[in-house]
Specification:
Blueprint (H helix, E strand, L loop, with lengths): L1 H12 L3 H13 L4 H21 L5 H18 L11 E7 L7 H12 L2 E5 L6 H11 L3 E5 L8 H12 L5 E4 L5 H7 L3 E2 L3 H12 L1
Parallel strand pairs: 1-2, 1-3, 3-4, 4-5
The structure holds cobalamin.
């Protein structure tokens, strides 16, 4: 089992999309839980490539191919992320303006869908006005904001304020690598979660 997990991590790191898909499938066939594959192989691969990028050993092209391989692996996992009954609620997700990181948001979306939520994904680099307009149009039960850069996470309080001006009872969750519980509290968010699995649990809790 460890061999498969190591193989997935390596395949993502070197950006091998076909190997990633195959090994994730092999892992599922061998009885690994989707969460284990995610937490013990896929996320560590992204952390590793991020550290290599920080230390100057990897560059943007490497980040891009690793991200592509990660996305292909996620597609294989998606149908296995649980099959709860529909009707848990409507969630709207987006990554804030100036930020094009999509993987974390997509993973939260997949886990939410797996848990029975209907999810509207309004994409990346979403301007505050677009969040407000989409909120007005769809009136989601929960709005999820994602930010991966220390600079773009500063947009979060602005989006929360603008959406609350539209609906003072809006339920808003925030997340992304630089976001913390403290930052979420200071921004006026209703909830924070450090990963997609916790995000789903938190959304359920907020709506119960
Ligand atoms: C892949 C990647 C990219 C890819 C993104 C591809 C894509 N389609 O997403 C590309 C190459 C485009 C990219 C670009 C850049 N990146 Co980048 N990138 C990464 C990397 C390696 C992985 C991110 C990732 O996908 N992680 C895996 C996912 C699963 O984890 P996650 O995003 O944290 O999401 C989880 C949780 O945070 C949470 N979550 C996420 N969103 C939400 C939302 C809610 C509501 C909730 C509840 C939870 C939640 O649940 C998720 C799933 O468990 C990180 C390094 C790292 N360790 O994070 C750097 C990183 C985020 N990038 C970084 C930088 C600097 C950049 C660039 C500025 C580089 C440049 N000079 O151009 C650009 C910025 C582009 C832009 N304007 O947005 C820095 C940010 C530093 C900082 N703190 O500001 C990092 C940390 C790398 C580093 N160590 O320096 N990047």
């Amino acid at each position: 089992m460890q061999e498969i997990l190591d193989g997935i991590k390596h395949a993502i790191l070197v950006g091998e999309e076909e190997d990633t898909k195959k090994l994730v499938g092999d892992g599922l066939d061998a009885g690994l839980e989707p969460r284990q594959i995610m937490e013990e192989a896929m996320m560590p691969a992204m952390e590793d490539i991020g550290e290599r990028f920080s230390s100057g050993e990897a560059f943007i092209p490497e980040l891009i191919v690793a991200a592509e391989a990660m996305q292909r692996g996620m597609e294989v996992l998606k149908p296995h992320l649980g099959g709860a009954e529909r009707g848990s609620g409507l969630v709207m997700m987006g990554t804030v303006h100036g930020d094009i990181h999509s993987i974390g948001k997509n993973l939260v979306r997949m886990c939410m869908e797996g848990a029975g939520f209907e999810v509207i994904d309004i994409g990346e680099d979403v301007k505050t006005e677009k969040f407000v307009a989409a909120y007005r149009e769809h009136r989601p039960d929960v709005l999820g904001l994602s930010a991966l850069l220390s600079s773009t996470m500063q947009r979060i309080p602005e989006v929360i304020e603008a959406v609350r001006a539209e609906d003072k009872n809006a339920v808003i969750m925030v997340g992304g690598a630089p976001v913390t519980q403290d930052f979420a509290d200071q921004s006026g968010a209703d909830g924070y979660a450090p990963n997609a699995f916790e995000a789903t649990r938190k959304a359920r809790e907020l709506l119960s």
